[in-house]
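Reviewer 2 asked us to include a model.

Predict the structure of this chain.
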Amino acid sequence: MALPQITALRRFVQREGLQRLLRNRYVVVGVLAVVWMLLFDRYDVGVHWRLQRKINQLESDRTFYQSEIIRLKAERRLLQTSRAEAERLAREQYLMKRTDEDLYIVVPVDR
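Predicted model (structure tokens):
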């Protein structure tokens, strides 16, 4: 048993509703305008989707760089206050040595 509202709606659409909608030029023009804006416009759905992905990528890059700035500021503060830390950085990254030391660089062999 179908509900009376659903049955009446079916009859309306089957008999005259769909035909009336298709004859109404405002509905046809409205549907065509929406289809045009979604698919063929300069700023269609695909463009919006790509731009949103780019925005999300840039926002994640922004958070990464902000955390890197905080980390580097802390490292700079440590290097400015600690002489031992400055010497450690110079020895590890720039291969500096004292005048009375010999420096040996061990390079792993790939097999």
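Residues 21 and 107 are 79 Å apart (CA to CA). The helical segments are 4-23, 25-39, 45-81, 83-94. We have added this to the supplementary material.
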